[in-house]
Amino acid sequence: MRFRPAARLQYLLSEQLVSDPNVAILEFIKNAYDADATDVVVEFQLADEPGDSALIIADNGGGMDRDSFEQNWMHPGFSEKIDAPPTSLSRIPVGEKGLGRLAAGRLGETLDVYSRRSPSSPWFHAFFRWEDFNDKDKLLDEIPISWDEVDAAPVDDLAAGTVVHIRGLSLKWDTRPPGRRAKGRAMTRIGRLRQDLEVLLLPLTAGGQDFTIRLLHNSSLSEDAEGFVIGSGAEAIEEEDEAPEEAERETAAEEDEKPPIPPGGVVIPERLKPLFRRFDTDGDGRLSAAEIEKMPTEVRERVYEFIRYRHE
Q: Alpha-carbon distance 303 to 82, whole Å?
């Protein structure tokens, strides 16, 4: 007797397992980091109706060919990154759960994936229409995925890497999400995405890794700033160079405002464990006061913000 997964399993998992659309985008960013990308572009092409909008996530990482795509993407739940050694750039893989292909179904109606390992190779291209999986009479392996090789990807000036093109977006990103807004959160979806990208970026670059994220879009809202995503510590560094005495006073004030660390340490949420693994030196899934103190300043401040938020 064996399991025979229905095609709707993919459809249901994409809708229910990945509840936060920002988490879906972060999964693609983490996959790019694991592929040793140094630059990731997240571009929203917004229209009046979400169904006419699109999202492109492009990275200059190692890329995939047909064989590696079939081995990884076409095996839901499989991830070769589990217990994998550091990458060629000495990065510890953070996208461990094989959620990329599920996350895409949460964001839009269709998915085009373009990838290649070398500028001399054609782009491998695969196409997914998620509604095809909403068929109660078919098994998962009965849904054909079309693929071909093409000369160009929908991004200029990318020699090699991976491009994810999601069309028919399920949400309107330049509006305010429903529900109560938490203290400190941006008003719009894109604004909140930028904040989450900042949180993601800080631990990824704490060890001096060359890794940048650019957020581009055509939103007209002033809050939805474009350009490079940076950690909140960058402005503080610039201010310290210009006015060291003022920076010292601010640092002293921040020391007085440190939130109390629980005796047993701060429990790391499951989805953030891969990001904070390098700081959890004893591997107990918690961050002690001593471990937090050893963090880079900008990462430590984010942890303090998390503690304050939990206690509000």
A: 25
Quickly count helices (H) and strands (E) in the chain.
Answer: 10, 10
Residue partners of 143: CB distance under 8 A and separation at least 6: 7, 10, 132, 133, 135
Domain borders along the chain are: 8-228, 233-311
Strand partners, 149: 124
Q: Tokens 């839901």, residue?
A: 76
Spatial distance between the Cα atoms of 14 and 212, rounded to a whole number of angstroms: 27
DSSP state of 75: S
pLDDT tens-digit readout, 246-299 = 445 444 544 446 778 888 888 887 766 767 777 888 888 888 988 888 887 767
Closest CA to 252 of 264, 260, 244, 262: 244
**0.85 exceeded by pTM:** no
- Ranges of beta strands (E only) in the chain are 39-45, 54-59, 108-116, 123-129, 146-150, 161-169, 212-216, 227-228, 266-267, 286-287
Is there a contact between 124 and 115 (Cβ–Cβ < 8 Å)? yes
Structure tokens at 306: 């998390």
* Fold observed for domain 8-228: Heat Shock Protein 90 (3.30.565)
Of 22, 53, 51, the C-alpha closest to 191 is: 22
Q: Which residues are within 8 A (CB) of 79 and not within 5 positions of it... i.e. 6 or more apart?
A: 72, 95, 96, 97, 98
Which residues, at least 6 apart from 112, have a Cβ–Cβ distance to it below 8 Å?
125, 126, 127, 128, 154, 163, 164, 165, 166, 167
